[in-house]
Amino acid sequence: MKSFNLVNAVVSCIVLCGTANVFAAPEAVSAAASSAATPAPSVPVEDENFCFFDTRPNEGLQYTTLKAVKYGKGTFGSVRQILPDLVRRAKAQGGEAIIGYTGSQRFGFWPWRLTRPVVRGTAIRWAEGQKPSDCQAAGGASLAWIVKNDLAPEKAQSAPGSAEEPAEEPAKE
Questions:
Q1: For residue 90, is pLDDT > 90?
Q2: Residue 135 — pLDDT band, cuts 50, 70, 90?
Q3: Of all residues in the chain, what percent carry a pLDDT higher than 90?
Q4: Which runs of consecutive H residues, i.e. helices, occur in 93-152?
Q5: CATH 3.30.1130.10: does it fit domain 26-158?
Q6: pLDDT tier at 70 (50, 70, 90 boundaries)?
Q7: How far is CA 170 from the centre of its chain?
Q8: Strand ranges in 35-155 using DSSP code E only, listed in sequence order
Q9: Mean pLDDT in the chain?
Q10: CA–CA dist 69, 79 (Å, integer)
Q11: Cα(first)–Cα(last) distance of the chain, in Å?
């Protein structure tokens, strides 16, 4: 009788917690995650040019450090899905950009085969007259570029051309 109650409790927990894929094959979990992450999330127009820097802006740009910001989704998904939420948190602190940005998959409460996206950085406010007109020229990447290309800010520096228009791949012959 006790084993039935234990099994019933485990199944109920799995169903109620939404973690039925705990027992799924890794291929099924990664396929579900990649299909869920395929469409790019919409970026609010007012946040498109919000700058992200993997380290710090280029020399000569002055700013005030405000506060560390962090946002994590409770279940699996992609980092680019939660970036607009990080921008909202940074703006709530008075931030105009984020330095020290990193986004990754982290283990959640159920550590086996379940990861969740977590993004973090430090909100900054530009000194008077120091806000760069071009995020890529300052050493970063805009929110719109990161969401569109699904790449980290440091990748924008290696892309020829504007951060808003990534380089076209050469035609395969």
A1: yes
A2: confident
A3: 23
A4: 143-149
A5: no
A6: very high
A7: 28
A8: 51-52, 63-72, 97-107, 115-126, 141-142
A9: 73
A10: 15
A11: 68
**Residue 46: CA atoms inside 13 Å, Cβ hemisphere, count?**
4
Q: Which two tokens stand for residue 119?
A: 């993004």
Higher local confidence (pLDDT), 86 or 159: 86
Question: Could you tell me the strand order of the sheet in which 63-72 lies?
Answer: 63-72, 115-126, 97-107, 51-52, 141-142
CA distances from 7 to 14, 113, 134 (A): 11, 21, 58
**Integer Cα distance of 89 and 94 in angstroms:** 9
Mean pLDDT of 57-61: 85
Q: What global pTM score does this model have?
A: 0.65
Full DSSP string of 14-52: HHHHT-GGGGS-HHHHHHHHHHHH-SPPP--GGGTT-EE
Single out the residue of 86, 83, 80 nearest to residue 38, CA to CA: 80
The single residue listed with the structure tokens 């109620």 is 16
Q: Is residue 72 within 8 Å of residue 131, measured between CB atoms?
A: no
> Where are the chain's structural domains?
26-158
